[in-house]
Design brief:
Oligomer: heterodimer
Strand content of chain B: 15-25%
Largest interface: A-B, 35 and 41 residues
Radius of gyration of chain A: 21 Å
Shape of chain B: globular
Order of helices and strands of chain B: EEEHEEHEHHHEHEEEHH
Strand order of the largest sheet of chain B: 6-7-8-3-9-10
Distance between the termini of chain A: 28 Å
Shape of chain A: globular
Helix content of chain B: 25-40%
Strand content of chain A: 35-45%
Number of strands of chain A: 24
Radius of gyration of chain B: 19 Å
Largest sheet of chain A: 12 strands, mixed
Number of helices of chain A: 13
Number of strands of chain B: 10
Amino acid sequence: MSTAETSTLGSKDEYTEKYGFHDADQYVFKARKGLDRTIVEQISQMKGEPQWMLDYRLKALDIFYKKPMPMWGGDVAAINFDDIYYYVKPTTDEVKSWDDVPADMKRTFDKLGIPEAEQKFLSGVGAQYDSEVVYHKIKESLEKQGVIFLSADHGLRDHEELFKEYFGTIIPSTDNKFAALNSAVWSGGSFIYVPKGVHVDVPLQAYFRINTKDMGQFERTLIIVDEGAYVHYVEGCTAPTYSSDSLHSAVVEIIVKRGGRCRYTTIQNWSSNVYNLVTKRAVAYADATMEWVDGNLGSKLTMKYPAVILKEPGAHGEILSIAFAGKDQHQDAGGKVTHAAPNTTSKIVSKSISKDGGRAGYRGLIKVQKGAVHSRSTVQCDALILDPESRSDTYPYMEIEEDQVSIGHEATVSKIGDEQIFYLQSRGIGKDEAAAMIVSGFIEPIVKELPMEYAVEMNRLIQLQMEGSVG
Amino acid sequence: MSNTPELIVKDLHVAVEGKEILKGLSLEVRKGEVHALMGPNGSGKSTFANTLMGHPRYEVTSGDIQFKGESILEMETDERSRAGLFMAFQYPVAIPGVTVANFLRTALNARIAPPAGVDGRVPLKKGINPKEFRTLLRAQMSILKMDESFATRYLNDGFSGGEKKRAEILQMALLKPEIAIMDETDSGLDIDALKVVSEGVNALAGPDLGVLVITHYNRILNYIKPDRVHVMVDGRIATSGGPELALELESRGYDWVREGSEVTR
């Protein structure tokens, strides 16, 4: 890992400078604020969707109205559903060349380093701006092998049968209020299909950018990894810093068939006015592996618990989660694993950091169904609290219906020791950098799982969060 | 040898949580010299070492510490380090997840382009070139007879006593201090660690380095030959002399110094 880059400290307004800026409003269509049948119909009509999708959306809207707000986790009471733009279409259609992306938007993605990353270390990129994907491209060599990587909208348009077969099967609209909301107004996101035995060695990436004030972004992602195939999908996200709140509520469904493997990496870096309420779930079939690497920085409130259902023998699930809560932030992160078949294994590692009165926690569920004999699971959650004002919570739930299983749980809570800071300082390292170094070390077991470029990025974001943290 | 000693401690009084531990300690160390500071348990040796390095728990109530002609009392610990002071810890702290190599590179870079003040903070210059750094590290590790795999381990995490000391010496070798304080107050029990420190000091000692070895047992002095030996009793230097003083302490214990100190004062 490169220390020169990771030890770069910037000004306190670095988020605002680097990510928190916004372009002048630009769109080809902007639905009025608020949510009702008309809005949903409008979205579907704009997209030229088949009738079944409109029906699905409208049914989901009813479910959304009926479902109560979650009364656990974070405080979502302040979300005003009438004061949100549910659909802002930035361009007429997505394009395959950055040159065709409007100048402002291209500049934004340039600033975020997306085209550069695409050149250097990615197999394909999707870039979403408010409600729609404005740029999408996959390497030709992968396309030739039958790999599909499209925006979810184009996935539905171009591969309707495949899309319909899996859409909503892992996370039904009835799952929770925000899954219902997404199902009603979804727009953008990724659709991926990796054919049998195909290994996509270099990651695919999607980047989600909110630009409009009072925006709601509801992308929908569906990934199907066929037998013996492999894909690593990475998502990143940022938003401008606004004084009013934005809402991001995605749904991600993943199917990993026999012997396949999917790794889904998130490096979330929302501005601190974004409610991030996301439902992510994968089903892993026989001997398949599903891995969630979930980096949660930024946002006002994040409630996100990536889940894996181990449906057939030999399936393996992993959730590696980092949550960093700074001032006025609440990260309620974690993971869920259901062992539904014998000889399934899972591992959850959660690292949460809280500072400046922030609140970061782990909320997790390990469920072993009757008959899932010889299942094994380990959960480790470590919390690092940087000052007395900050808070960490651990809510590990277990529902074990089978005796012949092995379940391990370990939890630690620690504070940055004065002796650690003194030791690093005694070697000439400044106080802030020393603290950042200790935090980087704390999350290292997860960061080392990331491709090098993302590991550097993750450490850089941590450094950014750590500025001026030690008095 | 320079005219003004690099390290001058003048009538130093230090309190910990309101209790006075150092009661007027004076000492001078020049580059090129090896000093041993000895004393019975509770005489304030560790307090002295930590105070020199600026540990926030230790409060200087009066007196002064001057390094290269300037008082360092107002300097932060990291500034003192960058100025050329070093302390080898008695019990080095583990930093899990941070490799020895990463840590050393950060420490070196802090010297090349130290972070500016909070307001005028400027991004680091490029720092040391990674390849150059690897070469430097490898060379230094080979001098200290350390296995290369050492660099990729997490700093002091799960290290044996001897390994921790070796890591301290490696840091000292790379950071090239002008005055190094070896805090070995209680570690006389681990003979392996003792040897590592001694060999390290002997390998690095020279005209550009002054060393102050702080120890309770004089066993370390079987390996290091000090130019000066100081005996500390009850928060100040009771007596100083040549290497023969250490031998005398061995045969007679500390009591005679204690009595003697009362006579001379």
